[in-house]
Amino acid sequence: MDVMNSLPTRNGNGAYDDDGHAKRTGTVKSAVAHIITAVIGSGVLSLAWSTAQLGWVGGPITLLCLASVNYVSSCLLSDCYRTPDSVTGKRNYSYMDAVKVNLGNKSRWLAGFLQFWALYGTCVAYIITTATSIRAIMESNCYHKEGHKANCDYGVNLYMLVFGVVEIVMSFIPDLHNMAWLSIVAAVMSFTYSFIGLGLGIAEVI
């Protein structure tokens, strides 16, 4: 009897969820914050330029198409979170688990390869973008201080290495995704990207 009482309850009551894991404490506010940080990234800074290149017809149509793809993907991921029933079924704790249950083990390996390849490409892109941005800031400060005829050439290799080391160090922080302050900082940065883009657009129109 004591052994049974020591086991996690699987009815969704108490400190554990119906799958025996620690009860989830997320709220609508935290979900909205995570969605904002996931959707609005530094790429929004070039969104206005990209839309302008497509024109007043192609730009909005492309945005609507991408929004539709994002919506359908979100619905599919939500439906695949539990299987076989989307409400009471067993939870899939990763994208690869959901693919394995619905499409088989071979598809799981293919999806995993594509997923990690995309993550690798994203990390490389962010490292290059960060290094380029730091160089631009350094050159701008140099020109303001020394004049526009000054030799203000800076390389990007050092900044790429520094940012890469920071990423590696932060990847070893346990439960990084559970830090509330990190989500707040990310949400603030997302809104900052948006306001920078809006401000530059208004300035260009004026």
Explain what this protein looks like in three dimensions.
This protein has 206 residues and is mainly alpha-helical. Helix content is 69%, strand content 2%. It is built from seven helices and two strands; from the N terminus they run αααββαααα. It has helices spanning 2-6, 28-39, 47-80, 95-103, 105-146, 157-171, 180-205, and strands at 82-83, 90-91. The protein has a two-stranded antiparallel sheet. β1 and β2 form a beta hairpin. The chain is globular. The N and C termini lie far apart (76 Å). Residues 1-10 have low confidence and may be disordered.
Record keyword descriptors for this entry:
single chain; 206 residues; 7 helices; mainly alpha; disordered N terminus; two-stranded antiparallel sheet
Q: Count up the helices.
A: 7
> SS-based structural class?
mainly alpha
Q: Rg from C-alpha positions?
A: 23 Å
Q: Fraction of residues in helices?
A: 55-70%
Termini separation = 76 Å
Low-confidence parts lasting 5 or more residues at pLDDT below 50?
A: 1-10
Q: Name the beta content range.
A: under 5%
For the secondary structure, the number of strands is 2
Task: Tell me the strand order in the biggest sheet.
Answer: 1-2
* SSE string: HHHEEHHHH
Globally, the shape reads globular
Main beta-sheet strand count, sense and barrel state:
2 strands, antiparallel
Integer average pLDDT: 82
Protein topology:
Layout: H1 2-6, H2 28-39, H3 47-80, E1 82-83, E2 90-91, H4 95-103, H5 105-146, H6 157-171, H7 180-205
Antiparallel strand pairs: 1-2
Helix pairs in contact: 2-7, 4-5, 5-6
